[in-house]
Amino acid sequence: MSPHEGGAQARSTADAVARRSYGKLVAFLSSRTRDVAAAEDALSEAFASALTDWPRNGCPSNPEAWLLLVARRKLIDLARRQRSGEIAAEDLRVLAEGLDAASAGADTAIPDQRLALMFACAHPAIDPGIRSPLILQVVLGLDAASIASAFLMSPAAMSKRLVRAKDKIRQAGVPFRIPEREELADRLEYVLDAIYAAYAEGWVDPSGADVARRDLAEEALFLGRLVAGLLPTAAEALGLLALMLHAEARRPARRNGDGEYVPLAGQDPEQWDARMVDEAEDLLRRASVLGDVGRYQLEAALQSAHVDHRRTGRSDWQAVVRLYDALFELTHSPVVAINRALAIAELHGPNAALAALPDSATDARLLEYQPYWAARADLLTRAASYAEARDAYEVAIGLERDPAVRGFLQRRHATLAARKP
Amino acid sequence: MQYLLLLYANEHGWDSLTPAQQQQGAAAYKAYTEALQKSGALKGSNRLQPTSTATTVRNENGKAQVLDGPYADSKEQLGGYYLIEAPDLDAAIAWANRCPGAGHGTIEVRPVWEMSA
After folding, report:
1. Residues of A in contact with B86 (CB under 8 A)
2. What does the pLDDT look like over A80-121, one tens digit per residue?
3. Is this complex's ipTM strictly greater than 0.90?
4. Which of A380, A373, A389 shows the shortest CA–CA distance to A334?
5. How close B60 gets to chain A, by Cα (Å)?
6. A173/B115 touch (CB, cutoff 8 Å), yes or no
7. Based on the number of CB atoms within 10 Å of its own CB, is A200 exposed (0-12), middle (13-18) or buried (19 or more)?
8. CA distance, residue A96 to nearest chain B CA (Å)
């Protein structure tokens, strides 16, 4: 093998391990010391070492164990270098124990402590606004910049808050454990929010051309299954998994043969993954008998209604608006308000829907939110206010980062060019 | 790890209690302190004199600036503390939640900055 081929293989193996096991390695490396930042630094140094070592010496048979061993050595170096003035001795003892365990057997599976790590990140002692981004970063390895865009925050502010949260976990001694039954429900909400945020990040690239993003959606589904499996009586955990499966089932139908974006109304139900839809419906039924309705079950029920509408041609828009009402009551989310307005359009027409749209004058975030402008443009078109519709499409096009969706909006915009006024 | 539980409450609250209520309150604190002691978690504890007895000192340009009164005027005042040993924040929060002070005030839980020997 040429050095070049070796390098390419090393990189692809490292990428595969990073996607599969990043969170597992961070969780394992930090579970004793609670020092997540140090675990992340050591792990990224271990990945860098892998990219120089593996092309020369070949990829190890167990890349995860290799990375774990190297990361542990880096952690020990780090503890010696930086924390000589603190409680380095205790840290070193803890790390050395783990080092022995890690080197003992390449075949020994690394225990999956991701869920415990997620609960630490969603601890009530952590700033509520940073819990979800924190889980995305430490479990999935997302960088601060991409998390910042998903959470409508500046990258600099996001980085600062992530660092602060990690410091709090370490300094305040936030435990890495799955909460007892009685405190589980409260803590679970933040964990579920973070999983859904991860799924939404993966959903941004529906064609699946971007491997990292597609894996992000898969990782979110994996985490969703993990939580739902561990907590089979947590209705919202089942609801979230149902919601993600509904969305995932439609992934193949979101693009036509030319790679163009296809909205739900134009999709071919034959292209939906029937197995996933069935699984989602089954989860929703199981959740509904638990008598604990929440945001994710309502959203999954809405997906279910849309799927039913497209499959049967019949729809109960009144029920859909009622579901959105309940959802808005719970979340007060402008995104829910936008979708509620679109459902109102089906019941009472575009002018009623435009009146029901949230007001960008009272929520400035909407001005930079593409779906708000796309919904406005669509409703204005249906209300025959073509000039205003064109303006709204132009803003939506300027805000969209996905080229396929941008293309879809541009085609809509073009059909309005000839229309007056 | 060690945590300092800082007990904040309206320091005039105690004076407005009836003698029977004060007796009950003192008994609750005594029982709590004993529970901490028996579990081996207690490292130290004191009740403080009211903030009217406080003096604030700051050294400016080598000269002591001494002022009458507490560092910060607030609705609830630091009235005492427990220094405890706990395996993690959840254990410390559980102790804070059991403290009678959590019922009539606020407990701030602060990890102690551990220094190497």
Report:
1. 173
2. 877 555 555 666 666 666 555 555 444 457 777 888 998 999
3. no
4. A373
5. 29
6. no
7. middle
8. 19
Indicate the range of A310-319, A363-372, B75-84 predicted with least confidence. A310-319
Residues sharing a CB contact under 8 Å with residue B26, sequence separation 6 or more, in sequence order: none
- The reported pTM is 0.72
The CB density around residue A293, as the number of other CB atoms within 10 Å, is: 16
d(CA A148, CA A331): 21
Instruction: Judge whether A127 and A203 are in contact, CB under 8 Å.
Output: no
How distant is the Cα of B2 from the closest Cα of chain A, in angstroms?
Answer: 10
Residue with tokens 């028996």: B38
Contact A173 B1 (CB under 8 A): yes
Which of A86, A123, A125 is nearest residue B114 as measured by Cβ atoms? A86
β-bridge partners, B46: B81
DSSP tag of B49: P
Q: Which residues of B touch A85 (CB under 8 A)?
A: 115-116
Is the pLDDT at A34 greater than 70, yes or no?
yes
Q: Which two tokens stand for residue A124?
A: 């009530």
Residues A307 and A298 sit within 8 Å (Cβ to Cβ): no
Per-residue model confidence (pLDDT) at position A210 = 52
- State the sign of the Cα–Cα–Cα–Cα dihedral A309, A314, A315, A316: negative
- Residue A263 in tokens: 């909205």
* Contact criterion met (CB below 8 Å) for B111 and A172: yes
pLDDT above 90: percentage of residues in chain A? 44
